[in-house]
Amino acid sequence: MIRVYTNRINYQYDLHALIKAFYPEHDIRTMDIAQYSVEDDCGNEVRVEFYDFRLELYIRIDAKGKNYSAYFGSNMTQVSKKWHKLTLYEKLCDYTGRTLPWGNLTGVRPTKLAMGMLAEGVDDDSAVEWLRKEHAVSDEKARLSVDIARREMQILDTVNCRDGYSLYIGIPFCPTTCLYCSFTSYPIAAWKERINEYLNALFKEIDFISEIYNGKPLDTVYVGGGTPTTLEADELARLFGKIRESFSFSGVREFTVEAGRADSITREKLEVMKKYGVTRISINPQTMKEETLRLIGRRHTVLQVKEAFAMARSVGFDNINMDMILGLPNEIEADVENTIHEIEMLNPDSLTVHSLAIKRASRLSQWIEENGISMLINTDNTMRIAREGAERLGMKPYYLYRQKNMSGNFENVGYAREGKYGIYNILIMEEKQTIVALGAGSISKRVYLDGNIKRRENVKEVAQYIERIDEMIERKRVLFSD
Ligand code: SF4
Fold first, then answer.
1. Nearest Cα to 227, choosing from 169, 280, 292, 175?
2. Closest CA to 21 of 380, 379, 408, 355
3. I need a labelling partner for 40 at 20 to 30 A (CA). Which of 85, 157, 211, 456 fits?
């Protein structure tokens, strides 16, 4: 554990995020410096004291302690948090002898900054320079974010962000729970008998939204989870039938269903999706190494991924995404090379490359305690292998996001061929359009014309969701009825 003491309580979140980025394997505890006591010494500590024009810093983490002082020009009337964060980052670089690819940026949406610059009319090179100077972002990552922001802007120009909306529908069931999962997901076997109850509750939410948003243009529909294809074919038909009869699809640009797990896909289900106008699906191998698939608890084989993909093509899907994860337990560069090679053979239309994120709520945290973090390897090289594979498939990066505690401190990048971009993915990342989210654990986001955003979530637990559906609808009434 690392104890972090500061005299600025409102900096605790930023301090936590920045120190965690350098030391992902440590728990970080931030507290008021008034609580500092030598008796509490756990071996690792950081003391950060902010004064009007000065920063005093002491760092002792897995090594000898070091004191730092930084002075800010006395002509600055107010030293902003941004400068404090940059200075702290520079001192941590000095202490550790390392830099981070994303510099002092710890937020999940770095492309938002680039997009903000471009929207002000700044050219690409200047935006890159700004990210490098103001946030110490590496040249490669700065260019990547500006490149993606530019592409996103072009795609968003074609969407009715101002008046339209998108719909998310969550099906929180999966065949089994993956080692790293932190989503709202429950094993389908435990809920088989109650799926109808879940769908009935969901249909109540659908009825409410279709009534209050009647006449409002719907742009994209995304059915995610969980794994929606854990539902049986007749249940999927009920769900898609309900969606189609409740909303006008005349302006819908994209209808995505996550068919993520190969062990949940059958020809019958694919045919149901095709019949109801699904345009884009995701079939996610995560890795093409059998041992890893077993270790992460996905309980499907590489062959099942290949068969599901071929079946989807034969049913007529011409926009199939695949997800892969870098930094999976015990995987080395050769495994990533193999996964990307196998994916290239399948030739999907888009590829999302994730860096493994270590979430407290996942079983992965336990696995790390038992096996150590050194078996999770994600490097510049594995990122490059994946990127070059996407390039060979004729894809370009079109959306990006980061999560806390990502292996290698990298990012998740969505690559796609021209015309196969996942529009919903951009909308959710850049927060430019209202997203109405239905189902257990979903979070609705209302984007106002002035850029303000309000969120309301549904309860995560399925039984609670069913039982309290009227309350979930009431939450939506408060968020959307004005
Ligand atoms: S498929 Fe996705 S949602 Fe389901 S258990 Fe695995 S990580 Fe979680």
1. 175
2. 408
3. 85
- Site to substitute for ligand 1 among 179, 182, 230, 261, most atoms within 8 A of C-beta: 261
pLDDT digits (tens, 9 = 90+) for 416-439: 999 999 999 999 999 999 999 999
pTM for the model stands at: 0.92
Task: Looking at the CA of residue 172, tell me the nearest atom of ligand 1.
Answer: 3
Domains, the chain, ordered by start: 2-96 (no CATH), 110-156 (no CATH), 165-475 (3.80.30.20)
Instruction: Determine the pLDDT at residue 409.
Output: 79
Give rounded-to-5 percent helix, strand, coil for the chain.
Answer: 45, 20, 35
Dig out the tokens for 469 from the structure: 């559906």
The torsion angle over the Cα atoms of residues 70, 73, 74 and 75, rounded to 10 degrees, is -160
Distance CA 134, CA 265 (A): 47
Q: Tokens 């993606």 correspond to what residue?
A: 148
Q: In this structure, which residue's CA is closest to atom 8 in ligand 1?
A: 181
Ligand 1 surroundings by CB, under 6 angstroms: 174, 177-178, 181, 183, 185, 225-227, 260-261
